[in-house]
Amino acid sequence: MSETKTSTLQYRFDGPEDAPVLILGPSLGTTWHMWDRQVPELAQQWRVFRFDLPGHGGAPAHPAGSVTELTRRLLATLDGLGVQRFGYAGCAFGGAVGMELALRHPERLASLALIAASPRFGTADEFRQRGVIVRTNGLDPIARSSPERWFTGGYAAAQPAITEWAVQMVRTTDPGCYIAACEALAAFDVRGELGRVGVPTLVLVGSDDQVTGPAEARTLVAGIPDARLAVVPGASHLVPVEQPAAVTDLLVRHFGTAWQSPHDAAATGQIPVQVPVAPPAAVPPQPALAPPAQAAPIAEIAPAAAVPRQGPGRPDPYDAGLKVRREVLGDAYVDQALAQADAFSGDFQELLTRYAWGEVWDRPGLDRRARSCVTLTALVAGGHTDELAPHLRAALRNGLTPGEIKEVLLQAAVYCGVPAANSAFRVAQQVIREETTPQE
User: Fold this and answer.
1) Residue 89 and residue 97: Cα distance in Å, rounded?
2) Contact 28/185 with Cβ under 8 angstroms?
3) Cα–Cα distances in Å, from 186 out to 1, 96, 119, 189, 233?
4) What are phi and psi of 291, to 5 degrees?
5) Nearest-CA neighbor of 73 among 141, 5, 120, 126?
6) pLDDT, tens digit (0-9, with 9 covering 90-100), for 226-266
């Protein structure tokens, strides 16, 4: 295992030192061991590089608040090892990193595989809600529900040891790093940029994936010019674990035939440097898996038309305001407010979005936690109980804990009056109960 600094990642190598480098990126809540079944065969042809997300698998708990930041750390790690060009396969969160590499650092990427991935993972609300639950209850509720998100019911029942291994992976993750990763996925959205992915891409998905399933996979294939689709029958979200042989075969075929070599670099993409790397960590034995189902053949789908880019000039604060408003209040609340607007109230909604959210909430002078504290106090002072619930939910999304919200309302009781605070506590008690109760 490597010695890891804040700007780099925990990693390991397998395979011949002079082979082309193939990177395997993990899913949120997992470790590099999710790829254990793929490595023996992949390492016959490639120098396989695996990494852990911050706070996962014992990696140092230095949270990365965006996919961009995590990608920067990955590239810094590779730069230190002299790896300049590589193939990349990523699952879920690891797939987001792969898209970031293809869009922002195309010169580094020889070929790409996106597994259980999406150009936008669910909704921002879903991931911020997950962060609220972890902040309040710890990771145990997420860990206990992971098998039903990751595996088909039949597999989970037939492989109890692997199911428990999955639960323990999540349970031993650093909560702060998990929350930061949720925030990173909440903000990730490259739907309008897929046409700029310029490397051969395999999009691979489990047929029974209920998290990022075949519909999301087809969106990727439709948007990426040189992309092919593979659907693996009998697999859910963590398809490399549930159907390891099928995934391995698809990766070998893809990276063995769709590898773009640069004109000005060695075939391996490596520049020799003197970097001491400790031997790979021991891989704990895992129970045998059920025989994999035969993977569906790879099929080509025509690319979608490119999305026109915004013209030059200062962005309209309405666009930034709508983004901030959704991030703070949640998509469902904002969608309802905008849907209810008519010819009479539409201008008011536009004013709110443009100036309250685009000009004030988007200013850098205060972070969102501080702005939530100010907003809650102002609402209590004004007796605006009807506006309090959405801003209490926003405060939880912005990182305030229930205990900190209590302190804000106690402070408001002293300076704004006990009757107003009494009403606020009743609303807050209900909201906090709803938002922090784990969903079984």
Assistant:
1) 9
2) yes
3) 30, 11, 11, 8, 29
4) -55, 135
5) 5
6) 999 999 999 999 999 999 999 999 999 999 999 987 744 44
